[in-house]
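Good morning,

Attaching, inline, the C-alpha cells for the sequence recovery test we're adding to the shared suite. The designed sequence is right after.
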C-alpha cells in the first residue's frame, strides 16, 4: 500500500489531471487570482503556468511529498512560489494573511473538507476571494445514484476522491457567500464530470 500511495498514486494523479479538457477551467480560475495567493493541494503544479500579475506571491500547499517534488520541477510563473508541505485541515499561516485562496479538484479528496474550508476562510482577508473549480454531486437523480454507489470503491483506488460531495453547500456552510458559480457536465463519464466553477467571499 505504501508504494502504491507514495509512488504510483502521485503519478496517476498527475496523469489524470493533465487532461486537456481541464485546461480552460484552469485558465479562467487562475486568471482571476490577485495578490498573495494560497493554492490548496497544488498537486504536481499544473496551475503554476497560469498565474499572472496582479498575483504577487504563491504559497503552494500540498501534503504529498512526491507531488511537492513534482511541482517544484513544473514550469513556474514570474512571481515567487513557496511550497508548504502541510494539510489544508491545519494551514500553517496567520489569520487574514492571504488575498486569494485557490482550490482546483481538491475538495473531493481532502478527508476533513469542512475543517479545511474553515481554515481557508480563516487565512483569507475579509475582502479576499476563494476561487474554485471542483467536481461533485450532480443534479440528476440517476447520476447521483451512481455517484453514491461508486464512491466507496472509487475512493479506494483514487487516493480518497469522493464523487458525491455537494460543493456549493459545503463552501457556503463554511461561512462563504458565493458571488459567481457555473455548473455543468464536462465531456466524460457523468458521475465523474459534474463541475462547479466560481468564486466566493467570506461572509
Ligand atoms: C485530484 S488532485 C488535484 C491536484 C491539483 N489541485 C490540480 O488541479 O491539478 C487532489 C490533490 O489534493 C491533495 N490533497 C489531498 N488531501 C489533502 C489535504 N488534506 N490537504 C491539502 N491537499 C490535499 C492531493 O495530494 C492532490 O494534490
Amino acid at each position: 500500500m505504501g508504494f502504491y500511495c507514495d509512488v504510483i498514486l502521485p503519478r496517476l494523479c498527475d496523469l489524470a489531471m493533465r487532461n486537456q479538457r481541464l485546461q480552460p477551467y484552469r485558465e479562467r480560475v487562475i486568471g482571476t487570482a490577485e495578490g498573495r495567493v494560497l493554492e490548496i493541494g497544488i498537486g504536481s503544479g499544473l496551475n503554476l503556468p497560469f498565474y499572472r500579475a496582479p498575483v504577487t506571491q504563491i504559497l503552494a500547499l500540498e501534503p504529498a511529498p512526491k507531488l511537492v517534488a513534482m511541482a517544484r520541477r513544473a514550469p513556474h510563473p514570474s512571481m515567487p512560489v513557496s511550497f508548504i508541505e502541510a494539510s489544508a485541515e491545519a494551514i500553517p499561516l496567520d489569520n487574514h494573511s492571504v488575498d486569494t485562496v485557490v482550490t482546483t479538484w481538491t475538495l473531493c479528496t481532502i478527508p476533513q473538507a469542512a475543517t479545511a474550508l474553515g481554515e481557508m476562510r480563516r487565512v483569507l482577508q475579509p475582502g479576499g476571494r476563494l476561487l474554485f473549480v471542483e467536481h461533485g454531486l450532480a443534479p440528476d437523480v440517476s447520476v447521483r445514484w451512481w455517484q453514491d454507489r461508486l464512491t466507496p470503491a472509487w475512493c479506494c483506488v483514487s487516493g480518497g476522491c469522493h464523487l458525491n460531495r455537494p460543493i456549493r453547500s459545503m463552501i457556503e456552510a463554511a461561512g462563504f457567500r458565493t458571488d459567481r458559480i457555473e455548473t455543468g457536465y464536462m465531456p466524460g463519464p457523468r458521475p465523474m464530470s459534474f463541475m462547479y466553477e466560481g468564486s466566493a467571499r467570506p461572509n
